[in-house]
Amino acid sequence: MKGLRVGLDGRALGNVNRLRGIGRYTARLVEGLARAGDDIHFVLFGYGGPPGEDLIARDAMDGLEWHEIPRVKGPPLLAFPGEHLTYAREIEKAGVDIFHGIDHNMVPFLRCPSLITVHDLILLVLRGPYLGPTAWLWMWAHRRAARGADMVIAVSENTARDVQRIWGIPPQRIAVVHEGVTPDYAPVEDGSVKAAALERYGIEGPYFLYLGGFDPRKNLRNMLLAFKRFARAAGDGPRLVLAGDFQGFEGYVGDELEELGMEDMVSLPGFVEEGDLPALYSGAACFLCLSLYEGFGLPLLEAMACGSPVLASRVSSIPEVVGDAGLLVDPLDPGEIARGMETMWEGGREVEELREKGLRRASGFTWEKSAATIIGLYDMVSGGRCRS
């Protein structure tokens, strides 16, 4: 029997998400699959040329077949279905046995067996601020693709519950496969390496670190209110570092800081190169994740792997990722958040134990484990052909 051909969705490697969470998920999972799937021929579908070594390691790309997808342009109401139809035709032309959809923009017109990774259902759970003019098209395509898939891969138990509740997917067609963290994320002990990274981003002195986006679910207002309350009590305490891509939210973040009178308490380094992240995590007195909703929360894993103690929300998938290795608080209560910040700043045995627990917990989440589990799902969907 011929070897199994599995198509992988690589669109996030060539669009606006290439350096965001979904792009990083795609790159690390593709690497893991390419290295683990000795009996599988992988075909990576994406835009433009093949991704460079800055995104995917050379040894992984050498084992992949690259298939370029034509871009479809035009008004959204025409381009959206046109893109999906074009993508489905290209997948059929490539002759794959199974297709694994990974990008948020699912493919609803596939004829071959398929699996899809669902990262979150933010738009459907939070709705209001996330419902743009073409949201109904996205919702329709996403739901149709999920209902037509042989298996839905949810990145967390929380996302799995949303998929079952909102889309009506039966639990026997949902598999939870957690994300992982690479060995690059480890405590940076070399003081000169940390100092050089902090200098590149203009970060001075002790700091609490936030890394991520700035859309409403990230709960910036309550984070700032809590930090202001904490800073007043702490006196000469840490600064708050808000790191991440501000595109589209520059005015919002600036207005919040100005209204609260916090311009002098906060550093805004902007986007941080992935190679510098371990140093920033390692240097932080505390890592903050006070979101109202996360599909998984990869920065939490990265922070714990680098030895940063974590102060996080006790909602959505966050407790699932953090377990007992972080201090969990109500994200809607600035007072409780501020008390958590005070605990982290005071340090002591409790915080050291959280740091140690975080290192142990993060070590259990690996891309190798994720890839092996997903290859098992390919085997199931293909009727055992991964073993042939």
Question: What report would you give on this structure?
Answer:
It contains 15 helices and 13 strands. The strands form 2 sheets. A 7-stranded parallel β-sheet has the order 3-2-1-4-5-6-7, with helices on both faces. A 6-stranded parallel β-sheet has the order 10-9-8-11-12-13, sandwiched between helices. The longest helix has 19 residues, at 76-94. The model has no long low-confidence stretch (mean pLDDT 90). It has 2 domains: 4-180 and 366-387, Rossmann fold (3-Layer(aba) Sandwich); 191-362, Glycogen Phosphorylase B (Rossmann fold). It has helices spanning 21-36, 58-61, 76-94, 122-126, 135-148, 157-167, 191-200, 220-234, 250-260, 277-283, 298-305, 318-322, 334-346, 349-362, 367-381, and strands spanning 4-9, 40-46, 64-68, 98-101, 114-118, 151-154, 174-176, 207-211, 239-243, 266-270, 286-289, 310-313, 326-329. Helix 1 (21-36) links the parallel strand 1 and strand 2. Helix 8 packs across helix 13. The protein has 388 residues and is an alpha/beta fold.
Topology:
Blueprint: E1 4-9, H1 21-36, E2 40-46, H2 58-61, E3 64-68, H3 76-94, E4 98-101, E5 114-118, H4 122-126, H5 135-148, E6 151-154, H6 157-167, E7 174-176, H7 191-200, E8 207-211, H8 220-234, E9 239-243, H9 250-260, E10 266-270, H10 277-283, E11 286-289, H11 298-305, E12 310-313, H12 318-322, E13 326-329, H13 334-346, H14 349-362, H15 367-381
Parallel strand pairs: 1-2, 1-4, 2-3, 4-5, 5-6, 6-7, 8-9, 8-11, 9-10, 11-12, 12-13
